[in-house]
Write a structure and sequence with these properties.
The complex is a heterodimer of chains A (141) and B (121).
Chain A lengths: L21 H26 L5 H23 L1 H28 L20 H15 L2
Helix pairs in contact in A: 1-2, 1-4, 2-3, 3-4
Chain B lengths: L2 H23 L6 H26 L7 H22 L5 H26 L4
Helix pairs in contact in B: 1-2, 1-4, 2-3, 2-4, 3-4
Chain lengths: 141, 121
């Protein structure tokens, strides 16, 4: 993680807040996905869980990941920053694996999640978002 | 669910969104007027939610009622959250946050109507 080339003139500056400037906008986008994934999974789990348990558990998992990413990016600080890095990394792996699986074996993913088809139901924003999130965490370090 | 009022909200929200996006493109931080627009949209949504719940109570039709109320409340939550989060941001990002709220509102209103019509999602 630590890149010795990036130490500027030996000044050990504290990291910039992740929830300001562009981060303000990024947190809002994460918040929308937290809200969308949570409401979708709440409906799925409460009304039709038996139809597709795997897809619906994945939806709920994605919702939790988005909630953690939103809150930790908004808060900033050392611990939140670490938490955000973990959550967004999981998000990246999740969207790639679920995206690939839904393309390779569509029968398993007939019931959509946020990450199905690499987030094609949401304009592929779920695919782009983790890259932007990780870039932003690096950028503000 | 009366379509005309939903259409009015959609058009107003999209006009506000266009305005917010233009001000963001012009590198403006959110103005008082933009926050006032968010308040106005919230008032429109409040009437929408009350009207929707009253109509639901007066109907004996089968549809996903919990989901319907959930989406109505979701609509109501968006402008205040955007207002709170955009406040205190001293860059165009605050303006973009408000723009996002204006863009999401028509999507939420559409979902409310779909649930009312019994279309699953």
């Amino acid at each position: 993680m630590a890149d010795p080339g990036e130490v500027d003139a030996g000044a050990r500056h504290s990291p910039a807040p992740t929830g300001q400037g562009f981060g303000r906008f990024l947190v809002a986008v994460y918040g929308i996905f937290a809200l969308a994934a949570t409401s979708r999974s709440a409906v799925q789990l409460s009304t039709e869980f038996n139809k597709a348990p795997l897809a619906y558990v994945l939806s709920a998992f994605a919702a939790i990941v988005y909630i953690v990413a939103t809150i930790s990016l908004a808060r900033g600080g050392a611990t939140s920053r670490r938490l955000a890095t973990v959550a967004i990394s999981i998000e990246l792996v999740g969207v790639l694996i679920v995206g690939a699986m839904s393309v390779l074996s569509p029968s398993v993913f007939q019931h959509p999640t946020v990450w199905t088809g690499f987030g094609s139901g949401y304009g592929f924003v779920p695919l782009v978002l983790p890259f932007v999130g990780l870039w932003w965490l690096r950028h503000t370090r | 669910m009366t379509g005309i009022y939903a259409t009015v909200i959609t058009v107003v929200a999209l006009l506000f969104a266009g305005w917010a996006l233009i001000s963001a493109a012009m590198n403006r931080r959110p103005t008082l007027l933009l926050f006032a627009a968010a308040v106005l949209l919230e008032l429109l949504l409040l009437v929408f939610a009350v009207g929707g719940i009253v109509q639901m109570a007066g109907s004996s039709r089968q549809f996903a009622r919990a989901e319907f109320v959930g989406y109505l409340l979701g609509c109501l939550a968006i402008p205040p959250l955007a207002f709170y989060w955009a406040r205190g941001e001293r860059s165009r990002s605050g303006t973009l946050v408000i723009a996002l709220a204006f863009l999401i509102t028509p999507v939420m209103v559409l979902r409310v109507q779909q649930v009312w019509a019994g279309i699953g999602g």
